[in-house]
Specification:
Layout lengths: L1 H11 L4 H9 L4 H21 L1 H15 L7 E4 L7 H8 L5 E7 L19 H8 L3 H8 L17 H15 L4 H15 L12 E5 L7 H10 L4 E6 L2 H10 L10 H22 L3 E5 H6 L1 H12 L11 E2 L2 E2 L26 H21 L4
Parallel strand pairs: 1-3, 1-4, 2-3, 4-5
Antiparallel strand pairs: 6-7
Helix pairs in contact: 2-3, 4-8, 8-9, 11-12, 12-15
């Protein structure tokens, strides 16, 4: 009778006769008690793992209560594409005194290369809609990956709903008396909602972020320094003979750098903007040579550590994403993670006529900007 009752119970638990026989055969019922304990644990785990909604609510509650405010100024990396901006951003990644924004900052509105215009008379909900970087949704669902040719995908655990809640909570609790308050609330909510951020803790002196071309229009830079008078602007100039092969081969839906004349006009415009920014904002602006970033990485990064007032750390010598080594963002053949010396010889892919055009169109601008660049 006991055996039949056990079998009836085990049948409901989708177990067979052999399992019942082995449990009943064990002396003193030890096996039965052990099984019942394991089964109760299994049911508990199954119930917990199905409670996804409850977990999300619990995460929201924990991070709303315990997130750290962010008031550090922004160190913006900005110049024309294919000049080393993403590399420098990845070298900053993981430094204990920095909040390193992963890859590109896309708070620009309506395009990423336009500084967002925030009206303090608008609602906080509208501020968040303007600043929100929607690429985090795709990166959360699919993982962060530089492009289809890259074989490594990095987990990026980010909850947009949590970011919105924290942003609105911070604004509601502290008000938004200035534009800086709005940006502080946004940056704080961003790093709080990035749940697997490996560099969350510790006092941060700067937020580092890269956005191409944001520093070219004069009103963008004026708006940036209005919000962040204690901010820093870092721009990288790349030899146009190596820049053009990379820019012209870059795989985008609409590559405006394929035509050599149009591309070099854009390159000149960018270098003139660097000179203007250095003239207008002085010591808050740093111009680097891309070639020095590749050839003399430690010297350049030691200089930048001083520029930002942070201690030099060996992690500044290795490009990483969330502290994991990452390959270069290149238009050419992918190599191993780290800094690619081959980026200094792209000019060998050009024809003599192309090299002559580059020299004619850019030599004067290149000499002028090199005179303002850091010499490590």
């Amino acid at each position: 009778m006991i055996y039949r009752q056990l079998m009836d119970g085990f049948a409901k638990l989708t177990l067979g006769r052999s399992t019942a026989d082995s449990i009943i055969a064990e002396e003193g019922g030890v096996g039965l008690r052990r099984y019942c304990k394991i089964r109760l644990r299994s049911r508990m785990l199954d119930r917990e793992c199905r409670a996804n909604t409850g977990y999300v609510e619990a995460l929201h509650d924990i991070y709303r209560k315990h997130h750290a405010p962010v008031s550090a100024p922004l160190a913006l990396i900005s110049q024309i594409q294919r000049s080393g901006g993403s590399l420098l951003s990845q070298l900053f990644d993981g430094h204990p005194e920095l909040h390193a924004h992963p890859y590109e900052l896309k708070t620009g509105y309506p395009k990423k290369y336009l500084w967002p215009k925030i009206d303090l008379d608008d609602s906080p909900e509208h501020w968040f809609e303007v600043l929100f970087e929607e690429n985090v949704i795709k990166d959360f669902r699919e993982g962060y990956k530089k492009g289809p040719n890259y074989d490594t995908t990095f987990p990026f655990v980010f909850l947009p709903s949590l970011q919105r809640e924290i942003f609105l909570q911070v604004v509601a609790s502290g008000g938004a008396a200035s534009m800086r308050d709005v940006f502080n609330a946004y940056m704080g909510s961003y790093f709080a909602a990035w749940l697997n951020n490996q560099n969350r803790c510790g006092e941060k002196k700067f937020i580092t972020a890269f956005t191409p071309r944001l520093a070219t229009p004069e009103d963008n830079v004026e708006s940036f320094f209005t919000v962040y008078p204690d901010g820093r602007l870092i721009s990288i100039v790349r030899d146009p003979r190596n820049w053009f092969p990379s820019a012209s081969r870059h795989k985008t839906k609409k590559n405006k750098y394929r035509d050599i004349t149009g591309a070099l006009m854009q390159w000149n415009k960018n270098t003139q903007a660097m000179l203007r920014n250095k003239r207008n904002y002085g010591d808050r602006v740093c111009i680097l040579r891309f070639e020095d970033l590749i050839n003399a990485t430690e010297s350049v990064m030691r200089h930048l550590a001083g520029f930002l007032g942070i201690a030099f750390d060996p992690i500044l010598l290795t490009p990483t994403f969330n502290k994991s080594p990452i390959k270069a963002n290149t238009s050419f053949k992918l190599e191993t993670p780290g800094i690619m010396a081959s980026t200094l010889s792209r000019y060998t892919t050009l024809k003599d006529a192309e090299l002559e055009i580059i020299d004619t169109m850019t030599s004067a601008s290149y000499r002028a900007v090199l005179a303002e660049a850091v010499a490590p």
